[in-house]
Amino acid sequence: MKRFGAFHIAVLVAGFAFLYVPILLVVIYSFNASRLVTVWAGFSTQWYAALLNNSQLLDAARVSLMVAAVSATIATVLGTLVAIVLVRFGRFRGRLVFSSLVYAPLVMPEVITGLSLLLLYVAVAFDRGFWTVTLAHVTFTLSFVAIVVQSRLISFDRSLEEAAQDLGCPPAETFFRITLPIILPALIAGWLLAFTLSLDDLVIASFTSGPGATTLPIQIYSAVRLGVSPEINAASTILIGLVTLAVIAFSLATKRSEVERQRAERRTAP
Amino acid sequence: MATQRNAPPGRNTRPARNVRFGRLALIGVPALWLTLFVAVPFAIVMRISLSESVIAMPPYEPVFDLSAGFAALAEAVGQLDFDKYVFLTTDPLYLDSYLSSIRIAGLSTAIILAVGYPIAYAMARAPKRVQPLLVMLVVLPFWTSFLIRVYAWMGILARDGFLNQALTGLGLISEPLDILSTDTAVMIGIVYSYLPFMVLPLYASLEKMDDSLLEAAADLGCPPWQAFWRITVPLSLPGVVAGCLLVFIPAVGEFVIPDLLGGSDTLMIGKTLWSEFFSNRDWPVASAVAVVLLVALLVPIGIYQHMQARQLEADR
């Protein structure tokens, strides 16, 4: 009954071509010898060499990586707390307000999130720079972490925790020795998601960053506004390559742990 | 828990109080953060939208002083100024921006649904073995920079870009088309950038579908096309609604795509807010634009939250 024919294959090929051809063009033309981006003039790696001398772009990349690493770490801790509260605490006073505040940054347009945070910083006279961007990124990424961790906590077998507690393990220790290791893959996935969202964000960073804290998207955006440039193609290709490697590594790692888990389950099964 | 209940009263109050304190701390830390960085900032936006624009830093008046206490707050309420909202209705720029955002986002959502449904359907039909790979192929572009994906289309849609080169090369057109810097380019950008947000929820709902329903329909003499229309489509409706909301809500407030792919006459409210803030430096008007945008999005956002809550219930 469940047919998968030539028509379905054609749809998938066309769909994936639409998704990947634009990205591939950027990669191919980053090796173009010509300054004209749409005319192919032979293979060259000169734009990668030019990139190494572009100190503005390199500085921006460093700032972005630091913002992303710090904000993803804080967002993972806070997002995990949020997920535990939402999944485990049932109904409590203020739950509706709490969950609305969690989901608000997810659905609010980025321009509003950025504007409101900037106005907060101005109101309390907080100098804009590294920390203002980082705090802004924690705030909008923690909701995404919460959702990822939440879905793992929902499918979690609570009898493991109950067994530990019945054997006299205090709640905090139960959390660190039983719960945390089991939900760890979700925490890693959440961290990676927060990291890439932070690395990718232009709008909120533009509102909340100050002098000395130019992130990579802000730098790329100001270059792109002047038109398509081969150097940006090279920078994009490096980013695409890094992300692809990270995603493949992560999916291989989770696949292996999944296989090991299944094997362990089969061993313990009667 | 049962052992605690049987323990002598003197020994069980402490842990109980500890548990309650622990709960409070667990809720308190994220609640404090969200209040400080989500609720308070938005209250400030509301307040500034009701302020006077002045040439100063910060460029609005009155500047409220949080340390001045309740009396100052009460006085500030007395100084509310609804001029900015009146201004939004008098200058057609704002109304046009809102309407044009909704039109562009709505049309793009419809196109994404039309493009995404066959892809999600084919994915759900694919052999179980390759399905995780297909999902990953849909997700992967989402992990690569949004800015770069929009930028890629600048090179494709330009007058001397790849699309015009390909079309003239094939002899389909003699004159290059002007696509870049038009609303069409913005819609192409939105369709491309948000396609994964539609395909994933659609795939999730189509993949869950019980095939025996289709078999039953076929056994009862229902032709495949009718079975698709009367069984598959209704059962995938939750995915359709979720996907449309996931695309429509962010597309309305989009800034990057209209700014890079659109022309000077492309009006979208995210771009208008941005230029009101950064170019005109009129913070009260920018705040008023933000408040009205959020009010306009409350209905779709409400539907989205409702769907999410239902999804969580269903997963449980």
From TrEMBL, chain A:
<dbReference type="Pfam" id="PF00528">
    <property type="entry name" value="BPD_transp_1"/>
</dbReference>
<keyword id="KW-0472">Membrane</keyword>
<feature type="transmembrane region" description="Helical">
    <location>
        <begin position="101"/>
        <end position="124"/>
    </location>
</feature>
<feature type="transmembrane region" description="Helical">
    <location>
        <begin position="63"/>
        <end position="89"/>
    </location>
</feature>
<feature type="domain" description="ABC transmembrane type-1">
    <location>
        <begin position="61"/>
        <end position="251"/>
    </location>
</feature>
<dbReference type="InterPro" id="IPR035906">
    <property type="entry name" value="MetI-like_sf"/>
</dbReference>
<keyword id="KW-1003">Cell membrane</keyword>
<dbReference type="InterPro" id="IPR051789">
    <property type="entry name" value="Bact_Polyamine_Transport"/>
</dbReference>
<keyword id="KW-0812">Transmembrane</keyword>
<feature type="transmembrane region" description="Helical">
    <location>
        <begin position="175"/>
        <end position="197"/>
    </location>
</feature>
<feature type="transmembrane region" description="Helical">
    <location>
        <begin position="7"/>
        <end position="31"/>
    </location>
</feature>
<protein>
    <submittedName>
        <fullName>Putrescine ABC transporter permease PotI</fullName>
    </submittedName>
</protein>
<feature type="transmembrane region" description="Helical">
    <location>
        <begin position="130"/>
        <end position="154"/>
    </location>
</feature>
<dbReference type="GO" id="GO:0005886">
    <property type="term" value="C:plasma membrane"/>
</dbReference>
<dbReference type="GO" id="GO:0055085">
    <property type="term" value="P:transmembrane transport"/>
</dbReference>
<keyword id="KW-0813">Transport</keyword>
<dbReference type="InterPro" id="IPR000515">
    <property type="entry name" value="MetI-like"/>
</dbReference>
<keyword id="KW-1133">Transmembrane helix</keyword>
<feature type="transmembrane region" description="Helical">
    <location>
        <begin position="232"/>
        <end position="253"/>
    </location>
</feature>
<comment type="similarity">
    <text>Belongs to the binding-protein-dependent transport system permease family. CysTW subfamily.</text>
</comment>
UniProtKB/TrEMBL annotation, chain B:
<feature type="transmembrane region" description="Helical">
    <location>
        <begin position="102"/>
        <end position="121"/>
    </location>
</feature>
<feature type="transmembrane region" description="Helical">
    <location>
        <begin position="227"/>
        <end position="252"/>
    </location>
</feature>
<keyword id="KW-0813">Transport</keyword>
<dbReference type="InterPro" id="IPR035906">
    <property type="entry name" value="MetI-like_sf"/>
</dbReference>
<feature type="transmembrane region" description="Helical">
    <location>
        <begin position="133"/>
        <end position="154"/>
    </location>
</feature>
<dbReference type="GO" id="GO:0055085">
    <property type="term" value="P:transmembrane transport"/>
</dbReference>
<comment type="similarity">
    <text>Belongs to the binding-protein-dependent transport system permease family. CysTW subfamily.</text>
</comment>
<feature type="transmembrane region" description="Helical">
    <location>
        <begin position="283"/>
        <end position="304"/>
    </location>
</feature>
<keyword id="KW-0472">Membrane</keyword>
<feature type="transmembrane region" description="Helical">
    <location>
        <begin position="21"/>
        <end position="44"/>
    </location>
</feature>
<keyword id="KW-1133">Transmembrane helix</keyword>
<keyword id="KW-0812">Transmembrane</keyword>
<dbReference type="Pfam" id="PF00528">
    <property type="entry name" value="BPD_transp_1"/>
</dbReference>
<dbReference type="GO" id="GO:0005886">
    <property type="term" value="C:plasma membrane"/>
</dbReference>
<keyword id="KW-1003">Cell membrane</keyword>
<dbReference type="InterPro" id="IPR000515">
    <property type="entry name" value="MetI-like"/>
</dbReference>
<feature type="domain" description="ABC transmembrane type-1">
    <location>
        <begin position="98"/>
        <end position="304"/>
    </location>
</feature>
<protein>
    <submittedName>
        <fullName>Putrescine/spermidine ABC transporter permease</fullName>
    </submittedName>
</protein>
<feature type="transmembrane region" description="Helical">
    <location>
        <begin position="185"/>
        <end position="206"/>
    </location>
</feature>
